[in-house]
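Run log, item B.
One chain of 299 residues. Sequence copied directly from the ordering sheet:
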Amino acid sequence: MTEKPKVYFTKVITPEKLIEMYNKLDIKLQGNIAVKVHSGEKGNQNFIRPEFMKPIVDLLDATIVETNTSCPEKFGERTTYEKHKKLLEEHGWTKVFKKVEILDSEQPDEELDIPNGILLKKNYIGNKTKNFDGFLVLSHFKGHGMGGFGGALKQLSIGFGSRFGKTLMHSAGKNGDPEKFFENICTDKEFKEAMADCAYSVVNKFKGKMVFINVMKNISIDCDCDGNAKPPCMKDIGILASTDPVAIDKACLDLIYNSDDPGKKEVIERIVKLLGPHIIECSVQLGTGSSDYELINVD
């Protein structure tokens, strides 16, 4: 009988607890380590601040990494290296950390095969991803305007994707040109399938060299990529850690569904309307991880 993946959970949300949760995991990252974060779009007030992450990043002597967004250049402040670099400074990332990289700031993209992909057979990620030996994928778990919810799987897919790769996901493989982004938006179902394919390819590349921490605070129905995101509608829930990205996202969903917070209604409506749980189903099908997990409470 296969052992269920462990997901550690604490209600305490502090920088020190991030380190404790990481230390609970079986995998200890070694070599040149990156911490994948969401830097927050200009105007967003909900993203997790760099000061909160500093102790664990310092512990790992890690590099903060991000990628550019996929929309046409005039939409948002993270569509080009120059604009994104400026915003990273404005949001404090380059002030708090000495090592900050935008993974897709150089061409060509790194191409990953997805031979058993549900929808896509190729994924395109940032060229500088290959410079790192392992990753802490540190996600702010919240709603998302296209994914339904954003957690570890969203970070692995959209979060690692180059601008070309992101656009392919949003178009179900029909278009990779960000300047034509809005001409080929795929269905909600297709988007989750494309995301699942790409998340699988990244996990497969770094098998045994990735760990996942989800922070459930500032829970809005909108993503940190939204400069006009709605304010949080739920109370903070806690921090989760796992070596399985599917298990950790499913645990977060379950915590929201089982919460007695009345604000959960708005979050669940967003998740359900956009078929968010379909990425869990697809990721299980692909073998990215398991949705059947053991939740271990940490005081």
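Observations after the first pass:
- The chain has one domain: 6-297.
- Residues 188-205 form the longest helix (18 residues).
Flagged for discussion on Thursday.
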